[in-house]
């Protein structure tokens, strides 16, 4: 696809340009925060293990004036790692990027600027050897699809906290504290890498690393502090076990939407999964949240029909552009909330 605006280019934003982009995007993604709080949060989020040396703010600007503060449009990228299986039984770690906060100021819209920026960005990714990039569309499936990003499953299961999930058997759960996340995530990644050897098909999974989980949780922590809400102390639950098995749930709290977001869920059987979901409901109740939200989890068979609602999301549509080879037919495993940015 040819570029509509050949006089424009993308550059890494300097400090002043970054401030401008954050001020611009506040109206879109600052719900519940003041402008100063939003700017502070963005600075904090850009300096965590997940983002430090891996996060870039990109701006579309004239080639002859790359340092201008009159920014045409902007976005953010995160350098990440994925487990990928192309050949049966072979798992490799591939470079990928996630794209976030694609924003065009209102005065610049409907001119094809975002399309130009994203096409230039795709070229950058390919030059750097990335196997794919992904994003979460808030503007439906069509815009990004014509630029190369294919929409994947965007269903979510909603659990009403007023309808408690019951479970049978003796399932002992231990709360996951913030300092437990690294150990849980590392074990989860190790198991995932082994399990993917037996998928029998082309598949990828964005690595559910501790830093990306902690980045999500920091959003909750900051919002709680800024809005004078009791900060949560538990970020999930793990099933107590004497063997090498691992069953757990990790979550974060979206206070302004009154819902608990399941970041990552691993349940080996019906009763264990139900116990983990019940614990999530209890956490939501503790913080006066109305619902528990689970993205693209294959758990409908462990729930009774009156216990959940399943819907196709109209926002945050996971979309992926595959660069590694000419065969874009690849399954996205673990298409869960932890990968969002």
TrEMBL record:
Q: Which organism is it from?
A: Paraglomus occultum
Q: Which PANTHER family match?
A: LYSINE ACETYLTRANSFERASE, N-ACETYLTRANSFERASE DOMAIN-CONTAINING PROTEIN
Quote the Gene3D superfamilies the UniProt record gives.
Answer: 3.40.630.30
Q: Could you identify this protein by its name?
A: 10457_t:CDS:1
Q: Which Pfam families match?
A: Acetyltransf_9, GNAT_LYC1-like
Please state every residue range assigned to the domain named LYC1 C-terminal: 168-341
Name residues in a coiled coil: none
């Amino acid at each position: 696809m040819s570029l509509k605006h050949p006089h424009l280019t993308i550059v890494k934003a300097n400090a002043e340009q970054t401030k401008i982009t954050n001020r611009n995007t506040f109206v879109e993604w600052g719900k519940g925060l003041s402008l100063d709080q939003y700017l502070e949060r963005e600075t904090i989020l850009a300096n965590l293990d997940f983002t430090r040396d891996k996060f870039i703010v990109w701006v579309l600007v004239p080639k002859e004036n790359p340092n201008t503060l009159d920014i045409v449009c902007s976005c953010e990228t995160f350098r990440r790692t994925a487990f990928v299986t192309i050949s049966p039984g072979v798992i490799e770690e591939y470079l990928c990027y996630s794209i976030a906060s694609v924003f065009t100021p209102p005065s610049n819209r409907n001119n094809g600027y975002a399309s130009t920026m994203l096409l230039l960005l795709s070229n950058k990714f390919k030059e750097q050897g990335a196997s794919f990039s992904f994003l979460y569309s808030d503007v439906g499936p069509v815009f990004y699809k014509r630029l190369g990003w294919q929409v994947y499953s965007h269903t979510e299961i909603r659990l009403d906290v007023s309808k408690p999930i019951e479970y049978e058997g003796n399932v002992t759960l231990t709360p996951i504290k913030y300092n437990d996340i690294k150990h849980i995530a590392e074990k989860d990644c190790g198991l995932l890498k082994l399990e993917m050897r037996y998928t029998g098909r082309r598949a990828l999974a964005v690595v559910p690393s501790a830093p990306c989980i902690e980045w999500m949780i920091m959003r909750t922590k900051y919002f709680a502090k800024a809005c004078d809400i009791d900060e949560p102390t538990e970020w999930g639950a793990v099933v107590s076990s004497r063997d090498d098995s691992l069953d757990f749930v990790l979550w974060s709290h979206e206070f302004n939407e009154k819902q608990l977001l399941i970041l990552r869920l691993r349940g080996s059987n019906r009763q264990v999964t139900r116990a983990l979901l019940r614990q999530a409901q209890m956490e939501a109740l503790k913080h006066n949240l109305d619902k528990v939200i689970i993205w693209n989890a294959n758990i409908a068979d462990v729930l009774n029909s009156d216990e959940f609602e399943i819907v196709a999301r109209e926002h945050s549509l996971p979309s992926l552009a595959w660069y590694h080879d000419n065969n874009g037919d690849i399954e996205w495993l673990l298409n869960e909330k932890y990968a969002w940015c």
